[in-house]
Amino acid sequence: MKWIVGLGNPGTTYQNTRHNVGFMAVDAFAKRHSISVTQNKCKALLGEGHVGGTKVALLKPMTYMNLSGETVRGYLDYFKADLADLIVVYDDLDTEIGKIRLRYQGGPGGHNGIKSIIQHTGTQQFNRIRMGISRPAPGVNIADYVLSNFPKAEADRVSAMVDETCDALEFALTHPFDQTMAKYNR
């Protein structure tokens, strides 16, 4: 079984913020495949379904971004899941808005959600899809920026990025992650 964890913050206050593109991708993927992500388990909203014959679990941690590792650890322990089957989807300041970058290992790069997952799993080796939100203009506070909504001018690029992320997730369900990286890292 593959499991996909989209990072974000719970609540309507954060719903359309840059920091919540991981949630946006999980919601779009769930809608695309008619998976209801409503079960409360492992400090997350959880949904399970089948995509092209592959069993999939979708998780949206309800711990707030900085504690996302608690959900990942809880899921690993409760379901005896394999870390090799995990894909984490999250926002990335160092990737241009509208672009995605895939990796299978690496440090947190200043992302507190990834830092928490590394702390709770004891490894930097897990599959990731980084969704670009670009860096703010000089002088703009990073926390304020990531917790701000996307402007209307970026709506089309964000929507296309969410769709491409869903396409990459679908491909990753039936292909090795290095092949997925080769296809979607442009």
Please characterize this protein's 3D structure.
The chain is an alpha/beta fold. It has one domain (2-184): Peptidyl-tRNA hydrolase (Rossmann fold). The chain is 36% helix and 22% strand. It has helices spanning 21-32, 68-79, 112-121, 142-146, 155-174, 177-184, and strands at 2-6, 39-41, 44-51, 54-61, 86-92, 100-103, 127-132. A hairpin with a 2-residue loop joins strand 2 (39-41) and strand 3. The longest helix has 20 residues, at 155-174. The radius of gyration is 15 Å and the shape is globular. It starts with a strand and ends with a helix.
Quick structural gist:
The chain has helices at 21-32, 68-79, 112-121, 142-146, 155-174, 177-184; strands at residues 2-6, 39-41, 44-51, 54-61, 86-92, 100-103, 127-132. By secondary structure, the chain is of the alpha/beta class.
